[in-house]
TrEMBL record:
Lineage, broadest ranks: Bacteria, Bacillati, Bacillota, Clostridia, Lachnospirales
Protein name stated in the entry: Proline--tRNA ligase
Keyword Nucleotide-binding among UniProt keywords: no
A GO molecular-function descriptor: ligase activity
Gene3D superfamilies given in the database record: YbaK/aminoacyl-tRNA synthetase-associated domain
Listed Pfam families: tRNA_edit (PF04073)
Length: 196
């Protein structure tokens, strides 16, 4: 259905777990469900048309009753250090503050070629679940404290035609250890509900 005030399709049905019919799903998406199933992690799924911006996620947020995280893929000026930053969808990203906290100057958005190389995902589909493809730990995960303080978090299954809701504790205590990744907690300034 096309909702009034939006220009993208949202199936408002909340599904538990992976799609029953996966014939039209990409392999990278199915791999995320395989990982979650292997770890026996419960999650809800909402299917929709590609969401072009974080603002387009607002209705998805409302249906899932969460705040979909921004997942920003960053690098240093020399393109030798790479970061995946999770922060609340409504929170502003402040480069200077983050650079100071992690000791990496001149952070910028990394080229999409690195995103594909390290995470096997494309722009618009960046997800913490893409770290399962980073076998050599080239990407350091950074999580804003406000994401960690929520019981649930939302992300894409490595493609932006679905959104998932799961417990934050499952990400921290089960998923990250299983894919051999740790995280650094950061504290970006500003009110979580301020809009960019």
């Amino acid at each position: 259905m096309i909702d009034a005030g939006t220009s993208f399709y949202i199936d408002k049905t909340l599904y538990n777990g992976r799609p029953a019919n996966s014939s039209d799903r990409l392999a990278k998406e199915l791999c995320t469900y395989d990982l979650l199933d292997r770890l026996q992690i419960p999650y809800q799924r909402l299917d929709h048309a590609p969401l072009p911006t974080i603002d387009a996620c607002r209705e998805v947020d409302s249906i899932l009753n969460i705040d979909i995280c921004k997942n920003l893929f960053l690098c240093n000026a020399k393109k030798t250090e790479f970061y995946l930053l999770l922060l609340p969808g409504k929170k502003k990203f402040r480069t200077a503050s983050l650079s100071k906290q992690i000791g990496s100057s001149r952070l910028s958005f990394a080229d999409h070629d690195f995103m594909i190389q390290f995470l096997n995902i494309t722009p618009g589909s960046v997800s913490v679940l893409g770290l399962m493809n980073d076998k050599d730990n080239k990407v350091q995960l950074l999580i804003d404290k406000d994401v960690l303080s929520n019981e649930f978090f939302g992300c894409h299954p490595c493609i932006n035609t679905s959104s998932l809701k799961m417990k934050t504790a499952d990400l921290i205590n089960r998923i990250l250890p299983a894919i051999n990744h740790s995280f650094i907690q950061v504290d970006l300034p500003g009110e979580p509900d301020s809009i960019q």
